[in-house]
Amino acid sequence: MKVKFNFGIKTYSGTVDEMVYGAYRKGNICIGRKYVTPALTEQNTAIGSIMKNLSAVYKEADPDYKGNLKTYSVLNSQQNVPKNMLAPTAYAIFVKMMFAWQKTSPETIDLAVVTVEDIVSQPAPVINVYGAIEAGYLHDVSGSESLVDDIG
Hints:
Layout: E1 14-16, E2 19-24, E3 29-34, H1 42-60, H2 63-79, H3 90-104, H4 116-121, H5 129-134
Antiparallel strand pairs: 1-2, 2-3
Helix pairs in contact: 2-3
């Protein structure tokens, strides 16, 4: 649900009183939801290990690569995301393209253990944002040909 605060507070990100808040669209929209502790399943555990590893890979990625993801995020939100929807963040785009890459060869690409070195050594399309666009993992945006900084 959209949240409106009093006293001049525009948005807030975090958890307060069993509610989770998130700021979107450069602080112009605040979304709130009730915090729910998920039931632990085998699927949760598998996705959790993948997401922990992808977080480590993203943290280890070259700052210019992350800058390209941020640039792509802004361009994508302007060109491909309807105004009434929230645009994905740079990290969400990174995760999306990594899962799209894994889908091309699920028996050989294990996102729970992949490293920056693995991505660089395989010449994977996700080595840079433009490669991911060319491979069809991400929507094309104008100016995408400049997003060529490698992950490592």
